[in-house]
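**Sequence, structure tokens**
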Amino acid sequence: MTRRRRTSRALKRRTGLREERPCILIVCEGQKTERYYFEGLKRTLGLQTMEIQVEPLGAAPITVVDYALELREERKKRARRSPILTPYDDVWCVVDVEIPPHESLNRACVKARDNNLKFALSNPCFEYWYLIHFEHTSALMNSIDEVITRLKHHQSGYKKNDPDFFTIVFPHTQKAIDNAEAVLREKHYEDDLRKCNPSTHVHRIVKKLLEIKENS
């Protein structure tokens, strides 16, 4: 009896140590721009269980997906041995469609879907997510430079890979979410954005993180 009571208490202690809030892994294709944004979001929302892993700049979309799968499997193994860790609740791959699209993009989309990874495309680039913090636009973007030029109409000092740009866009987050969703409705697209220029699914990650913050 005494041994069972002690074991029960030990189990309760172990259970009490486990993370209660969802743990989100975000694997970004870009080395700096996306990382600075999501790290800023994590810091501002106080989401300590959110992890960001960044592949080298210019990594192929399929490499991002493979890396996300590797990290997810490693986390599962560590969680089985740990009283503290849990497996990731969601794993997101953040990828640009680019112009022209990378040759591995289609394979990456299929592999992510088949392995239950969440895939956040920006078409043509992540800067479109920044742009819609300031305006609603569904006009075709013929190049990444065109997106950045349009962004500079609102923020003339914008520089790619600026670690402080998050503080400028964050107050307009709800506007960006509304604009992203409005463009998708306008273009009649929902999940596959490879041929939906311009568009983004970054807002889906942001909404999830805001929900976690609200419920924490």
